[in-house]
Structures are given as C-alpha cells and as structure tokens.
Amino acid sequence: MSDSCGYAEARRVAIFGGTHGNEMSGVALVSVWTRDDREIRRSRVRTEPFLCNPRAVEKCARYIDTDLNRAFTPENLSMPGGEELPYEVRRAKEINQIFGPKGSPDAYDVIFDLHNTTSNMGSTLILESATDHFNLQMVHYIKKAMAPESCMVLLTEHPQLKYSTTRSVAKHPVGLEVGPQPQGVLRSNIFESMRRIVKHALDFIEMFNGGVEFPACRVEVFRVHERVDYPRDTNGNISAMVHPHLQDCDWEPLNPGDPMFQTFDGSTIAYQGAGPVYPTFINEAAYYEKHQAFVTTFRETLAVSAIRKSTK
Predict the structure, then answer these.
(1) Which of 128, 177, 206, 284 does the annotation list as catalytic?
(2) Which amino acids does the record list as binding substrate (predicted)?
(3) Could you identify which of 61, 147, 193, 213 might form a hypothetical disulfide with 308, taking C-beta atoms 3.0 to 4.6 angstroms apart as the criterion?
C-alpha cells in the first residue's frame, strides 16, 4: 500500500464532442447522451456531455475562425472578452469558465475529448503527461477491456511541441481518436468503438471512486517525436504524396531507407532517420493546412505506480 499513489476522487467528468465540427462520432454521441444520459450515469461520478463548437457543428466544418483544439493558450484564456475575438477564442474562454479554470483546484477532474481521424489509427487514447498515473492506470484498464481490439496510447508530452488542447482544462485530460472515418461522415463501427471506450473509462472511474486499488502495471505508449511535412516546391506547393507503402500503416515501424513519399512523376523519397520511428496521423486530411504529412513517434513502455483513492 505504501508504494501506491493517492489521487482525489474523480467526481466531475465531462465528455466533449464537436471540438471539431466535422468529426461526427463525438458529435453524435454527445447528442445521444444529452437526450438520455442513462448510459453514462454512474453512482459516484457526475458526467456531463458537452458540445464544444456548436457553430462549427452546424456548418459541418472543422472550425469557424481558428482551431479550437489549439486555442487554450494562457494568452487566449487571460485575454479580455469581446465580440472582436475569433469565435473559437471566445468559446475557449467560455469552456475554461465552465470546466476550469485551467490549472486550478476548481477544474473538472477528467475531460474526455472525442475526435475522429481520417488516418488508419484505429482506436487511440491521447495523454499529455507521462507522470499522470491516474490516466495511465485508466488507459491500462481500457486497453485490457477492449482486447482483442487494439487500443493505442499516444503521448503528446514534448519539450518543443505545444498543443493547448480543449481537454487541457481538466486535471486529467484524455483525448480519444478513432478512425479511419472521413470528415462529415458517421461509420457505425467507429461510433461503437468510441462508445465502448467511454463506457470502460467511466467504469474505471466508478471503481476507483469506490475504493478499488489498481496495482502497479506497465503501459506501452508512442511518444511524439516530430511532425513531418510533405515535400514542397519553391512556391510552397506540395510536390509529393505519402508513399503507398506508408499509407494506412499507422503504428508500424518506418526504418531508414523505407519509402516515405512518392513524387508526382513516380520517384520515391526514402526515410533518412537514424533509426526506426512509428508514424501516425498518416495523411490526416485536417493536417494539410498545418503542413503535416504525419507525426513520428518512439515506442516506449512506462512503469505505472499502483493508485488508490486518497483518504485526505
């Protein structure tokens, strides 16, 4: 017992859908649960479904003025309010007021932010910290509950890459990406995978709040390394596509010398790194505007402490 980490009960949980208005699984699930929340009710947890970007949802667009999932910077959140601000910055301030303030003791305990990807990533849980053992134990529980269906864990903790996500308002932020699914489309298999993951997550929180101690474990994660852009010509236009040998191969090793891009005349551009990396978000439709063809990751295994409910 002495080696376990004590965490406060996670009494207030929010489920965000529609952070991006054209990612339909989260939009649909939040709509279902707003009408009838029996499925997400637990006796020891108050769970609130919430539509983050209603204007973007109405237009079935990723965003109106700027990406809401990058808008939760200290500068934006501390800015005086006003109609002249971009819509998503105003919305970020509102969300921070309702579910935060970010970094404060009053912030919600857990936020699940539901996303879809056009990439062949399957079900992926996204964590922002390698030292949040509550979240690591939760994803370990979800991975076991989802088996034999795979559920990857992407760790976005990186000294140079900052995301300022919608979910970062919470004490324990968890992103969920499920794909492949085209933008503006609902696929039943993707919808059901997302639904099952949320169910298992809420079950874990209910058990934790009820006093269950979770023993030490190990969790395999893919830690973000760098963003890779498409090759471009002198005018900044894309001059090559993701190579067919890389397309749809999220989470598979990319070794030095492996094909990475294919130019429009059929030539191959190979990966020149020092060792293997594991690409993901390969050819994600939403990332063309961000000049990102994929993100490379390193695979590692984290030792996770036992956790129990704090008695303080």
Answers:
(1) 177
(2) 69-70, 163-167
(3) 213
Binding site for substrate: what residues are annotated?
Answer: 69-70, 163-167
pLDDT digits (tens, 9 = 90+) for 33-55: 999 999 999 999 999 999 999 99
Q: Which residues are known binding-site members? A: 20, 23, 62, 69-70, 115, 163-167, 177, 287
Q: What is the DSSP string of the chain?
A: -TTSEEE----EEEEEE-SSTT-HHHHHHHHHHHH--GGG-BTTBEEEEEES-HHHHHHTSS-SSS-GGG---HHHHHSPP-TTS-HHHHHHHHHHHHH--TTSTTS-SEEEEEEE-SSS--EEEEES-SS-HHHHHHHHHHHHHHTTS-EEEEE---SS-----GGGGSSEEEEEEE-S--TT---HHHHHHHHHHHHHHHHHHHHHHTTPPBPPEEEEEEEEEEEEPPPB-TTS-B-EEE-TTTTT-TTS-B-TTSEEEEETTS-EEE---SS-BEEESTT-GGGTTTT-SEEEEEEEEEEE--EEE---
Annotated binding-site residue numbers for Zn(2+) = 20, 23, 115
